[in-house]
């Protein structure tokens, strides 16, 4: 929870976020502002201190190495996400760019690191087990972000996730934008380029109508199916004595599906 709070502070400040968890973002508090970055640094140091006080030297070293990976890899992903949003060249909104960004921004933090921390606590962390996690979990991690990007389109007021959707306004290189640019014709691309990245309500509506016209929900179902098939191939190729086991990864994906199914149902109801 503390690591997530650390990233919320930084992410909301950099993106100019307004709502998080149904409340005003931390930097919008009257007595906070840019001090949110200082608070994030305190939070990060507090996490390290907690680890050092509660674990043996060897275990502490493994845990902090994973946490450092979260910070370092996450920062690179955030950088790639930010510079893509600042670009006016939509030729850069590619599947390759999106995957590269979110393997770092989403996969390691949301999927890989919890598994690696569990392996460390169970004294089963090894180069081989790390390689299995790294290989299998990329697609799940990116799919987590794809799901979040989809929700952002329909979660206008923040009532579904507690965070208002602003990917269109902030010119994010989201999966939705990438999928639309792959599928659109010349006229649809013109509409996208003329309206994307604006806070003008009329332009935002134009983008949302374009998304509906291209049936973005159906495109998501196709993407989810393709990612799942890739995931299954990787899991089925694991050695029988692999750590984590194939059975573990199957159960892990079931948890992900339960999470996405519940929120997506809410999203469909609102849509």
From TrEMBL:
<protein>
    <recommendedName>
        <fullName>Farnesyl pyrophosphate synthase</fullName>
    </recommendedName>
</protein>
<dbReference type="GO" id="GO:0046872">
    <property type="term" value="F:metal ion binding"/>
</dbReference>
<dbReference type="GO" id="GO:0004161">
    <property type="term" value="F:dimethylallyltranstransferase activity"/>
</dbReference>
<dbReference type="GO" id="GO:0005737">
    <property type="term" value="C:cytoplasm"/>
</dbReference>
<dbReference type="Pfam" id="PF00348">
    <property type="entry name" value="polyprenyl_synt"/>
</dbReference>
<dbReference type="InterPro" id="IPR039702">
    <property type="entry name" value="FPS1-like"/>
</dbReference>
<dbReference type="InterPro" id="IPR008949">
    <property type="entry name" value="Isoprenoid_synthase_dom_sf"/>
</dbReference>
<keyword id="KW-0479">Metal-binding</keyword>
<dbReference type="InterPro" id="IPR000092">
    <property type="entry name" value="Polyprenyl_synt"/>
</dbReference>
<comment type="similarity">
    <text>Belongs to the FPP/GGPP synthase family.</text>
</comment>
<dbReference type="GO" id="GO:0045337">
    <property type="term" value="P:farnesyl diphosphate biosynthetic process"/>
</dbReference>
<dbReference type="GO" id="GO:0042811">
    <property type="term" value="P:pheromone biosynthetic process"/>
</dbReference>
<comment type="pathway">
    <text>Pheromone biosynthesis.</text>
</comment>
<keyword id="KW-0460">Magnesium</keyword>
<keyword id="KW-0808">Transferase</keyword>
<dbReference type="GO" id="GO:0004337">
    <property type="term" value="F:(2E,6E)-farnesyl diphosphate synthase activity"/>
</dbReference>
């Amino acid at each position: 929870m503390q690591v997530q709070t650390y990233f919320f502070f930084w992410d909301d400040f950099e993106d100019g976020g307004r709502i998080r968890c149904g409340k005003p973002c931390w930097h919008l508090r009257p007595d906070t502002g840019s001090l949110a970055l200082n608070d994030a640094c305190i939070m990060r140091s507090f996490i390290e201190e907690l680890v050092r006080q509660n674990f043996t030297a060897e275990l502490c070293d493994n845990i902090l190495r994973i946490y450092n990976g979260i910070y370092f890899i996450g920062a690179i992903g955030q950088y790639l996400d930010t510079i893509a949003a600042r670009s006016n060249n939509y030729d850069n909104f590619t599947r390759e760019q999106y995957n590269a960004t979110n393997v770092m921004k989403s996969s390691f933090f949301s999927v890989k690191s919890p598994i690696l921390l569990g392996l460390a606590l169970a004294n089963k962390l090894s180069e081989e087990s790390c390689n299995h996690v790294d290989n299998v979990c990329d697609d799940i991690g990116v799919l987590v972000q794809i799901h979040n990007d989809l929700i952002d389109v329909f979660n206008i007021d923040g009532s579904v996730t507690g965070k208002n959707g602003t990917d269109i306004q902030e010119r994010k290189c989201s999966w939705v934008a990438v999928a639309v640019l792959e599928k659109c014709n010349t006229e649809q691309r013109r509409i996208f380029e003329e309206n994307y990245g604006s806070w003008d309500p009329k332009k935002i509506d134009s983008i949302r109508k374009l998304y509906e016209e291209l049936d973005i929900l159906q495109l998501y179902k196709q993407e989810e199916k393709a990612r799942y098939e890739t995931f299954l191939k990787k899991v089925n190729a694991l050695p029988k004595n692999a750590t984590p086991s194939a059975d573990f990864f199957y159960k892990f994906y079931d948890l992900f599906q339960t999470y996405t199914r519940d929120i997506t149902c809410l999203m469909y109801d609102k849509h």
